[in-house]
């Protein structure tokens, strides 16, 4: 069988509206749940099929392929979040990245770390595990409907002498934390800042250097529209000596490929020191495809597109039985919008009625959650609002 590599679909994409054609899901339903799982593009499908065909019918060196794509993917991940390639770690998920930090950071028994009491469990469990393993104490920062006040962060850090704050860039109920201010508070209290970025990466602007982030982790299956089981993390050069690799493999060290039996634990000085040998090849292919699209369209443009769709929704919902529950202050607005029926007991019924019409949104903590992406347009929002007005 002759294998012919197909051509990229991305050169045809000139703006965000063009990208809708890359997502056949738009022809079968109104999908507004990218904060849960997002959809693959035809470009991602093309790259995955090309890879599978090539490795099915030809003899190709997988190790060399993985090294090459890992290198290019790290450079693109760095470009997406304002970091440097050498500070990127390829991971298996957001939680994998958070555990790399939680297991490796040099803390002593009795040291305090802080998380908000409304964080998604994947952010909290790594620290609860450290309580069991190392006697580290986890302090909860109070929140209200997923919204966290800077004053509560400052008070918690100061009163408990917190060594690490772990917080989401965008909470799963849509509140965007003011990372510039959070970072300032952390520095004033000699506290490391760890950020879970899965609910915003690719669609909500973030910059590791400008925001003063010490460690960052994000997965692929939500807004990044890639296969599950892959993600990436960032570690600031200033804290690498404070975070020990707890899993070591041949990819973690300066490995002598000409002498497999030359056992020298010579750890690399870049992000690869924290990686686990053979990576998820298909996941990396899918993730690179999505990041290529994000970089081509521009994250600022993507974010503006999503906010414009939210604005249309907010306007259409005036004088209806629904209320917007999200914080709409510019510094806290995000790619996720939550709303509710005036009678919250009806929210579950509302979601089920929408699904009957193949309109998909999420129900989280009894809030209805709207999560539009690049492939959504005004017609999707109007389909949603028209149905809501009839419920």
Describe this structure in words.
The chain has a 7-stranded mixed β-sheet, with helices on both faces. It has helices spanning about 15-20, 40-55, 60-80, 95-105, 120-135, 150-160, 180-190, 280-295, 300-315, 345-355, 380-390, and strands spanning about 30, 90, 110-115, 135-140, 160-170, 190-195, 215-220, 230-235, 320-325, 335-340, 360, 360-365, 365-370. It contains 11 helices and 13 strands. The model has no long low-confidence stretch (mean pLDDT about 95). It has about 400 residues and is of the alpha/beta class. The protein is globular. It folds into 2 domains: about 15-40 and about 300-390, Alpha-Beta Complex (Aspartate Aminotransferase, domain 1); about 60-295, 3-Layer(aba) Sandwich (Aspartate Aminotransferase, domain 2).
Topology summary:
Blueprint: H1 16-19, E1 30-31, H2 42-57, H3 62-81, E2 88-91, H4 94-104, E3 112-116, H5 121-134, E4 137-141, H6 150-160, E5 162-168, H7 179-188, E6 192-196, E7 215-219, E8 231-235, H8 281-297, H9 299-316, E9 322-324, E10 337-341, H10 347-356, E11 359-360, E12 362-364, E13 367-370, H11 378-390
Parallel strand pairs: 1-11, 3-4, 3-5, 5-6, 6-7
Antiparallel strand pairs: 2-8, 7-8, 9-10, 10-13, 12-13
């Amino acid at each position: 069988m002759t294998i012919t590599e197909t051509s990229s679909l991305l050169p045809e994409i000139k703006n965000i509206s063009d990208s809708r054609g890359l997502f056949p899901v738009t022809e079968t339903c109104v999908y507004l749940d990218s904060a849960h799982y997002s959809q693959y593009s035809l470009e991602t499908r093309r790259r995955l099929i090309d890879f599978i065909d090539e490795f099915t019918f030809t003899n190709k060196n997988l190790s060399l392929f993985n090294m090459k794509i890992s290198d290019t993917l790290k450079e693109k991940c760095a470009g997406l979040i304002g970091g440097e390639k050498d500070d990127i770690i390829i991971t298996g998920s957001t939680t994998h990245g958070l555990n790399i930090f939680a297991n490796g950071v040099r803390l002593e028994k009795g040291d305090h770390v802080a998380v908000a009491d409304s964080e998604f469990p994947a952010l909290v469990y790594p620290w609860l595990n450290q309580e069991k393993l190392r006697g580290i104490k986890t302090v909860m920062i109070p929140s209200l409907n997923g919204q966290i006040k800077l004053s509560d962060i400052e008070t918690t850090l100061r009163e408990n002498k917190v060594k690490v704050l772990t917080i989401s860039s965008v909470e799963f109920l849509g509140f965007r934390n003011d990372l510039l201010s959070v970072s300032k508070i952390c520095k004033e209290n000699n506290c490391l800042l760890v950020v879970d970025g899965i609910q915003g990466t690719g669609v909500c602007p973030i910059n590791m250097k400008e925001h003063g982030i010490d460690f960052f982790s994000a997965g692929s299956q939500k807004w990044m529209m890639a296969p599950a089981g892959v993600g990436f993390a960032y570690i600031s050069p200033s804290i690498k000596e404070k975070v020990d690799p707890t899993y070591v493999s041949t990819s973690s060290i300066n490995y002598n490929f000409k002498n497999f039996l030359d056992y020298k634990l010579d750890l690399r000085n870049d992000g690869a020191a924290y990686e686990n040998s053979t990576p998820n090849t298909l996941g990396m292919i899918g993730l690179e495809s999505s990041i290529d699209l994000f970089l081509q369209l521009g994250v600022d443009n993507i974010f503006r597109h999503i906010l414009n769709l939210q604005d249309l929704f907010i306007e259409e919902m005036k004088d209806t039985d629904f209320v917007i529950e999200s914080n709409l202050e510019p510094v806290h607005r995000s790619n996720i919008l939550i709303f509710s029926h005036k009678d919250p007991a009806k929210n579950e019924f509302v979601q089920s009625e929408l699904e009957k019409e193949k309109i998909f949104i999420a129900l989280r903590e009894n809030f209805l959650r709207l999560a539009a992406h690049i492939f959504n347009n005004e017609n999707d929002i109007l389909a949603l609002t028209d149905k809501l007005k009839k419920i």
